[in-house]
Amino acid sequence: MPIRRCVIITLAMDVKEGEIFLLKIIYTLLFLSLVYIGGKLFQRFVRFYRIRKNLRNHWQGPKCHWFWGHLGMVTRGNKDPARFITFFTEKEKEFPLGFAIYPGPFRAVLLLHHPNIVKKVLSASAWEAPKNRSSYAALVPWLGEGLLVLNGHQWFRHRRLLTSAFHFDTLKPYVKKMNHCGKALVKKWSSVIADHTSGKIEVFQQFSLMALDTIMNCLLSYEPNAQMQQSENIYVSSIYTLSKLIIERGRNKNLAMVFNFFYKRTKAGKDFQVNCDKVHQFSNTFMKQRRNEIADMNGNRSHFDFLDILLSARDTDGNGLVDSEIRAEMDTFLFRGHDTTASALSWTLFALASHPQHQDKCAAEIMSVLGGRDEVSWSDLSSFPYLTRCIKESLRMYPPVPVISRRLDKDIGAEGKTILKGTVVQISIIGVQRSELFWKDPQTFNPDRFTTESASQQNHHAFIPFSAGPRNCIGQNLAMNEIKVVLAHILQKFKLTVDHNHKIVHCHELIYRARGGLYLYLEKREDEKS
Ligand code: HEM
């Protein structure tokens, strides 16, 4: 007798009619669930097969293993961290539009570095080309569902509610706070060097703390004084621990660490959770305190910052953001608003230190505009054309965010090719900005690429450090203002030179940074020595 019939008969001997009926329903549901899961898996496989076939037929890529693909080519924990940067830039001659890579048997990614195709993807609506959430997976437990990772209607709602926080009227009073933090940095650096001697500093760490002071001061009207007391402030030390843990997780050779399920069980994963809790506690407490302040003053608060806007923003139905959404935005903006700016400041100063002729021109421009004042005003910001060109050239060569990722939700065609719905696309900002097809001598630092005349002849999507289209960087004006103010303070006082004994290891870890630090020598400017 077949086993199935035998089981049914045995069951039938012990159970009543009603129970048999119930069992039949359970078995049917189980069977239907299996069919559903199988169908979904089959559907996914068919979609992946179509995408892979399209990529194989129309988008060439570097040679790879027939089954494992390029797994191992860009491996985690690669011994050469600069490999990641070169990987994005060196394939351009071979594949001028972009190329496909297969990081394993069931994954396919299309890397784009041609401005015309990049334009098509970036100008697609946020629904047609949503963010690829898996590229932000490690950040989500910390940052929550903020603007950076949201998609669809939620993203649209948040972006609309937050846009007024970056209008010029809101940004204007921030310049005073930027001056304050820039001056504190100069004071700190002055103490590093004794008169007529030179001092060595690691700029990434210095700018990171300064940018954190600035962003918290601007957005929350709170100064943690991170520049002076990094380890004493729980919030500051926690976000440094979190960044460090995320970077270490990215370097970890153990592939299982990609999955939150395994990572959460490790010591590092538990440490990560403890620090996430501390950061969230800070944001929650701060938010509640501000609510009380607003209530105490019957809404008559004298200053209006980002947090005030978060708390008071209402959509057309009169609904505002709930506490968890406000906290996610606070955490997102404080994190995203400091590390990127610190990277931009570090690389610009490095570029100027490597090219003294440009550094001197910037310093002369700053001194002529400020005329001895030690405060940069809002109107001064548009009076530094040479400095602005140098900053842009640095953002071209060393984009703080070198790559961004999308998962297409519709077919997109460009340059005679089609990218199918469902394809994961990586836009190589660094590849576009160092393309030999669009930039003459792309590896040379040349600020004159950004004169009004040269810029007008350039393909607009060949320079996208802040991305472009509906999901461009909401904080770009704030960032540019801060970079100008801080560099004006530094270059007015100091002359910088490169430490040629220290090898610079370029890498992409959360942002474009130098592994092991970026060291420069400081010297007081001649006119400052007297
Ligand atoms: C030099 C400094 C900066 C650079 C190079 C930069 C670059 C970028 C890039 C490339 C994106 C697109 C990311 C993607 O599509 O995945 C982006 C988005 C974003 N940036 Fe920035 N950023 C900078 C400064 C800032 C600052 C100061 C803030 C906050 C005050 C900020 C907040 C954001 C947010 C919230 C998004 C997500 C916007 C959205 O999806 O609607 N960024 N940034």
From TrEMBL:
Record flagged with keyword S-adenosyl-L-methionine: no
SUPFAM superfamilies: Cytochrome P450
Keywords from the UniProt entry: Heme, Iron, Membrane, Metal-binding, Monooxygenase, Oxidoreductase, Transmembrane, Transmembrane helix
Domain of life, per lineage: Eukaryota
Residues that span the membrane, as ranges: 20-42
Entry-linked Pfam families: p450 (PF00067)
Family: Belongs to the cytochrome P450 family.
Family annotation (PANTHER family): CYTOCHROME P450 FAMILY 4 (PTHR24291), PTHR24291:SF208
Protein's recorded name: Cytochrome P450
Organism: Clavelina lepadiformis
